[in-house]
UniProtKB/TrEMBL annotation:
GO MF entries: 1-deoxy-D-xylulose-5-phosphate reductoisomerase activity; manganese ion binding; NADPH binding
Protein name: 1-deoxy-D-xylulose 5-phosphate reductoisomerase
UniProt cross-references to PANTHER family, sorted A to Z: 1-DEOXY-D-XYLULOSE 5-PHOSPHATE REDUCTOISOMERASE, 1-DEOXY-D-XYLULOSE 5-PHOSPHATE REDUCTOISOMERASE, CHLOROPLASTIC
InterPro entries found in the cross-reference section: DXP_reductoisomerase (IPR003821), DXP_reductoisomerase_C (IPR013644), DXP_reductoisomerase_N (IPR013512), DXPR_C (IPR026877), DXPR_C_sf (IPR036169), NAD(P)-bd_dom_sf (IPR036291)
Biological classification of the source: Bacteria, Pseudomonadati, Pseudomonadota, Alphaproteobacteria, Sphingomonadales
Chain residues that bind NADPH: T10, G11, S12, V13, N121, E123, G202
Top-level lineage group: Bacteria
Catalytic activity field: 2-C-methyl-D-erythritol 4-phosphate + NADP(+) = 1-deoxy-D-xylulose 5-phosphate + NADPH + H(+)
Protein species of origin: Sphingomonas aliaeris
Residues annotated to bind 1-deoxy-D-xylulose 5-phosphate: K122, S148, E149, S173, H196, S209, N214, K215, E218
Purpose of the protein: Catalyzes the NADPH-dependent rearrangement and reduction of 1-deoxy-D-xylulose-5-phosphate (DXP) to 2-C-methyl-D-erythritol 4-phosphate (MEP).
Length: 385
């Protein structure tokens, strides 16, 4: 029986994680479930899974959570410090499924306790990769990647002999506007951008997939997680999302992980690791799929790919600035304050105007993140006015 905490339990990844856990009630015991403010979904999940504690990050939602949990025996808590304390309760297995850098401090709190920490939440790795990896080394925590591409690489990468790896190839669906001209993308609405052709995901990552910033963030995420040179990480467009990523070895062997485009497979891999567990996924039907296609990515139409590659190569504070500016720009796009093409433009503007020294500690990363958010927010106002 593993004790489990899910940070971001009401979102897309959090719900997929709960789905797997609820199919195996004897295998897992839920210590805590957290959300920002979705008290209805959080309370229902906590009651169903007999969680010990349910936490809302937004303290203003705590009263409502208490009402919903009245008489259940489940402890209700709220606010940033309750979230941190909960992440540090020492679960055997913690899922990091908060969206954005809001997940950074809770993930760090979990990593500092040791145990298995599963990272779906990629933004903290982008902004504070070294800080998180150092903390894991110190505490003995095991970090497992749930992002489907990185989970695929993790399954194919012989970590005992990294010198045998020639390249990592990240596959990218290309998103809903894969074949669109920049001109046509100018008038894209949030509704169009969140309608991903293959995956059902939260709004922020869906927009990131449409701009290809998701693959840019994943490029940096791969560089954090796997010991290969930056120029040995390639991106290939693969519209079917059946091959989740590949590892190319020096002898010409290329290993890939395939599966349905459903996050429950990589999450199950992390839940059972180093074992395997059954999932409700149908066996892969290659004959029904018929064709697997590949194409080169286009950095002209999707400048986020270029910006992310440059941020990775320059290092220091650049990835944290890239991520923070993108979070602000995506939120503004979803709020209809700016257009689709302005997302990458705001990220580039922020990178051009902000060049702080490389952050070495968590509070320094948070300061860079805040500085970049301020510049990006100013730019949003200029576009919106
Ligand atoms: P989502 O928007 O569906 O869910 C986000 C969760 O975080 C919710 O539980 C929400 O209540 C909580 N949350 C939001 N803001 C918060 C805050 N300020 N403080 C605390 N909690 C907060 O997002 P998602 O699609 O599940 O993605 C979660 C993370 O996993 C993201 O980093 C995303 O990039 C990554 N990811 C998602 C998928 C996917 O298929 N959805 C795949 C790979 C990686
Ligand atoms: Mg991914």
């Amino acid at each position: 029986m593993k004790t489990v905490t899910i940070l971001g339990a009401t979102g897309s990844v959090g719900s997929s994680t709960l789905d797997l856990i609820e199919r195996d009630p004897d295998g897992f015991e839920i210590l805590a479930l957290t959300a920002n403010c979705d008290t209805e979904k959080l309370a229902a999940a906590a009651i169903r899974t007999r969680a010990k504690r349910a936490v809302v990050a937004d303290e203003a939602c705590l009263g409502d959570l208490r009402d919903r949990l009245a008489g259940s025996g489940i402890e209700a808590a709220g606010g940033a410090s309750a979230l941190m304390e909960t992440a540090a309760m020492g679960a055997d297995w913690t899922m990091g499924a908060i969206v954005g850098c809001a997940g950074l401090e809770p993930v760090m709190a979990a990593v500092e306790q040791g145990g298995v920490v599963v990272l779906a939440n990629k933004e903290p790795l982008v902004s504070a990769g070294d800080v998180i990896l150092d903390a894991a080394k110190h505490s003995g925590a095991t970090l497992l990647p749930a992002d489907s591409e990185h989970n695929a690489i993790f399954q194919c990468f012989d970590a005992s002999r990294p010198g045998n790896v020639r390249r990592i190839i990240l596959t990218c669906s290309g998103g809903p506007f894969r074949d669109w001209s920049s001109e046509r993308m100018r008038d894209v609405t949030p509704e169009q951008a969140v309608a991903h052709p293959n995956w059902s995901m939260g709004a922020k990552i869906s927009v990131d997939s449409a701009t290809c910033m998701n693959k840019g963030l994943e490029l940096i995420e791969a560089a954090r997680l796997f010991p290969v040179p930056h120029d040995a990480i390639e991106i290939v467009i693969h519209p079917q999302s059946v091959i989740h990523s590949l590892v190319d070895y020096i002898d010409g062997s290329v290993l890939a992980q395939l599966g349905p485009p459903d996050m429950r497979t990589p999450i199950a891999h992390c839940l059972a690791w180093p074992d395997r567990m059954a999932t409700p996924m149908e066996p892969l039907d290659l004959i029904a799929i018929g064709r697997l296609e590949f194409a080169a990515p286009d950095e002209m139409r999707f400048p986020a790919l270029r910006l992310a590659r440059q941020a990775l190569d320059a290092g220091g504070a650049r990835p944290a600035i890239l991520n923070a500016a993108n979070e602000i720009a995506v939120a503004a796009f979803l709020a209809k304050s700016i257009g689709f093409l302005e997302i990458a433009a705001i990220v580039e503007h922020t990178l051009d105007r902000y060049d702080p020294p490389a952050p070495k500690k968590l509070d320094e990363v948070l300061a860079v993140d805040a500085g970049a958010r301020a510049i990006a927010s100013e730019r949003v106002k200029e576009y919106a006015s």
